[in-house]
Amino acid sequence: MTTTSEQVAPVAYDPHRYPPFAVTADVVVCTIWNGQLAVLLVERGAEPHAGRWALPGGFVGVDEDVDDAAARELTEETGLDVVAAGAFLEQLRTFGAPDRDPRMRVVSVAYVAVLPAPVAVHAGSDAAAARWWPVADLDLDESGDPELVALAFDHAAIVAAGVERVRAKLEYTAIATSFLPATFTLSELRRVYETVWGQQLDTPNFRRKVLGIDGLLVAVSGGREPAPPTVGRPAQLYRRGDAHALHPPLLRPGPR
Amino acid sequence: MTTTSEQVAPVAYDPHRYPPFAVTADVVVCTIWNGQLAVLLVERGAEPHAGRWALPGGFVGVDEDVDDAAARELTEETGLDVVAAGAFLEQLRTFGAPDRDPRMRVVSVAYVAVLPAPVAVHAGSDAAAARWWPVADLDLDESGDPELVALAFDHAAIVAAGVERVRAKLEYTAIATSFLPATFTLSELRRVYETVWGQQLDTPNFRRKVLGIDGLLVAVSGGREPAPPTVGRPAQLYRRGDAHALHPPLLRPGPR
DNA sequence: CTAATAGTGTCTGTTAGACATTATCCT
DNA sequence: AGGATAATGTCTAACAGACACTATTAG
């Protein structure tokens, strides 16, 4: 009984004669927090879903590019200049079920971001609080497990899709370096892979593979400022190279 | 005009107080046509961009899931039941630049589809014509080459993204079988890869790899109905197996 | 010295590309 | 037979995982 199957454009293009859609940009912001893969969530202060945790995001402005809206929301929530911080931000997928927001028809364009460190966060205008949540503590498959945190709207599915995207992108892009500061050691890089993938990697083999990827890493001379308290042989520092795509890819150890 | 009054929108959530967005679902429909990778385009009958070729698509209904809208548009344009035909259809990306349509603010959720054969197509309500275009004949990077066909709106970028998605997905999913009928030979499957990737593959090695992928292909007994005119040794027929993801992946020959 | 972390070397089974060879149909 | 296409077999270099070993620091 959908009467809208043939949406013929009228003669005049009065915008208000079209189905009233709202478009939001919501961002799955990832970082490594307390040694765990974590995402930034805000606690909703108003109905619906008041008190539940939701993705940071908001409405896209009338004359605003959707991509720009995502960058703006990320900046508002973290106070971080996305470009300057070398953060990763890309579109994930659009969620457009008609009943995903009980108030009105809202289409959500979801994004994934990766930040180099768990920056200080502050709640936005309509949020009661904001904090990092380890993804392991979230009820992403909506099992209803009371040990896990339930998310608002369909945000569990969005977070799940974002996390899977990041896991996959570690294999064939340089996204892992976005979890780290400008310079880092190979151990730190390996720990990013291990944390996000949730499995141990062989140190020497990781080293051989990652250094064999053309243009991924550049060794930098000198130590870190300030020199961190260290035990054992001091590590070589690297910064990311020009490569965005990884040739060859660094594949997850499979079930052989 | 349609209203959402039964949605009991509170005063604060009057849809018309929000920026008026229109949302469309546009589909990059791929097939192999005359031995070339081709996409379905419709000729625009009205301004703007009258006479130019554009992606099939249309407005999403007020109570319609965006994914459903894409499937509906695909069916309207091809007369094909997406599910029954075993066609592939998935979301590509959302294009949301504020000036991409001069009439009003339109956010386009783009999809990619793969059809098993170049089915007969017919123009929709607001299209002058519809036909398959080899992607090689389209000006996807907007070079302005007069030998190539220029596309309407930002549809060149959408087609380019869709084609690249299909090329990438051949590597790690069973999407290649969506270009073929229910049963097919290994040569036909190899020709899909060669056509989409635009490079020759070694026959024996392709065979070894593709048969080594767990659950991708199932040999079927008997010949084809009706038996096609054939020269040379008759080929074994296969149908697609249960596998959607390819383990191990079938990677494009790289520049070594 | 020992503990701890960083980095190197080596062995082995698997795999990818190249290509020669055999099989089975048609005319 | 001869042409055409399908299917199999083989060789080799590169690569992956496993893991033993060396290097450099702190205390």
> Beta-strand percentage of chain A?
15-25%
Task: Please name the two chains that share the biggest interface, counting residues whose Cβ lies under 8 Å from a Cβ on the partner chain.
Answer: A-B, 41 and 43 residues
* Rg of chain A (C-alpha, Å): 21 Å
Query: Biggest β-sheet of chain A, characterized?
Result: 7 strands, mixed
Distance between the termini of chain A: 50 Å
Query: Would you count the extended β strands of chain A for me?
Result: 10
Percent of residues of chain A in helical segments?
Answer: 10-25%
Q: How many individual helices of chain A? A: 4
The string of secondary-structure elements of chain A, in order, is EEEEHEEEHEHHEE
**Oligomeric status of the shown chains?**
homodimer
Low-confidence stretches of chain A: 1-13
**What is the average per-residue confidence, as pLDDT of chain A, rounded to a whole number?**
89
Shape, principal axes of CA atoms of chain A: elongated
The SS-based structural class of chain A is alpha+beta
Description:
- The structure is a homodimer.
- The radius of gyration of chain A is 21 Å and the shape is elongated.
- In chain A, strands 1, 2, 3, 4, 5, 6 and 7 form a 7-stranded mixed β-sheet that branches.
- In chain A, about 20% of the residues lie in helices and about 25% in strands.
- The longest helix of chain A is centred in the middle third of the chain and has 18 residues.
- Chain A has 4 helices and 10 strands; from the N terminus they run E-E-E-E-H-E-E-E-H-E-H-H-E-E.
- The N terminus of chain A is likely disordered.
- At the A-B interface, strand 5 of A face helix 1 and strand 5 of B.
- Chain A binds a DNA duplex (27 and 27 nucleotides) through helix 4.
